[in-house]
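Q: Could you fold this chain for me?
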Amino acid sequence: MMRVILAQPRGFCAGVERAIEIVERALKKFGPPIYVRHEIVHNRHVVDDLRQRGAIFVDELDQVPDGAMTIFSAHGVAKKVEQDAAARHLPVIDATCPLVAKVHNEGRRYARQDREIVLVGHAGHAEVAGTIGQVPGTVHLVQTTADVANLNVRDPDKLAYITQTTLSVDDTRGIIAALKARFPSIVGPDVRDICYATQNRQQAVRDLAKRVDLILVVGSRNSSNSNRLREIGEELGRPAYLIDDAGAMQPDWFRNVESVGVTAGASAPESLVRGVLEGLRGIAEIEVSTLDGVAEDVRFRFPAEVADA
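A: Sure. Below is the predicted structure, expressed as structure tokens.
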């Protein structure tokens, strides 16, 4: 008998649920095709499902025909993308996660105070590109404490920092400490402004690692928060695998394994977790339980364009 413990919380966060439902409501209200700039969330299964229902995912706005209903992804977009859409009179629904939008607002507020901004985040991530493009003035991207040591700023007394939402308090603590040590006058948001979902899912993996021999993280390779969940498992001395779905599991992983922890990134649907449990049943007889953890009840309002759909 192999024990399987499910992390709590796991899977969809409120921002992801909202973004997916915005596309579903738009398809229902306006009919296909609906054009979505970038993947609505970073999960292959979610994107493929919406594609089959009439959503068309594009990299840039110039791939959207004139007059076509357009949705901006949960990760947010640069101000220039908004301006380009307005110049073309494209009907737009903005599915940016409200917590990402809050970071944009903070960045603009600091910029109005004539501060240079330090953004703690991952280069190349869609959210980071959107945030840099939303904040006027200079934005320095730092990914490590070494980056902090190499920062060249105009005025050390006129600095502020903001963070990518899919990094937790734990992920950013060392970098923020390095910023404060080098620039004592730097200001930044309260730790309560960090995305609650990222922090909760990471804490659940830490709790899981104390109880299991191996950890499975359901999520896509391009999902920042899913990759981090796998890394945390390994940092805590547990073999940890990031899998798209049950089909990616290999029986060899489970030799001499008595207990398996299962979690899912914030953009991975619960149906994939159920599929993993079925896959595990094909490998061994299993006994499933759920970890005690935070019950999330956050809900965000829908944009006016689809509030009635």
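A (continued): The domain at 14-97+301-306 is CATH 3.40.50.11270 (Rossmann fold).
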